[in-house]
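Both lines are quoted verbatim for reference:

——
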Amino acid sequence: MPKIVDQEARRRLIAETAIQIIGTRGIEAASVRTVAAEAGVSAGAVQRCFATKDELLRFVLHQVNARFTARVQARMAQASDPTDEALGLRVIIDEMLPLDDERRLTCAATLALLAYSATQPAATEIMRSAYQAAHGFFMRAFDRDAAIALYAVISGLQGPLLVGAITPAQAYTIVEMSIAHKATTRWARSAPG
């Protein structure tokens, strides 16, 4: 009798393996052959799940977003008030900063996938949607422009943290200064120069 394979579980396994490879060795290392070998499946199995490498990478983008959301939800489920939006914002900010192995892996993979998505229209849409969802959550606490600006500041801290150009303490100081600034001032809406 042929073995029944859970294709969705296999797709997730392949995507998780690709995230590990991309987050530790870069997107160029995530060939079908390498992903297959490290996932413990055949290259043909990868190709049956994903017709192209681009299709795999788009699925990986969704998986990265799902992993991030799951971590935030798990932390909020342990909070004394899981509906506390101020705490939720802090948890999201904390999860965005690459300060432990899991967050470093996710952040490195996300940054590599961001560069990839800049030249791939279907991936661009996935990344844009993720940004819009994040902006929407930040807009629960700040006006639209301040929310987008705060998100941009936190995103901008990721690369310097990954390469050790700033310390976690410096990153948190920048975050706190940005939050305080956004809470007390309104950004001037004027055209550049």
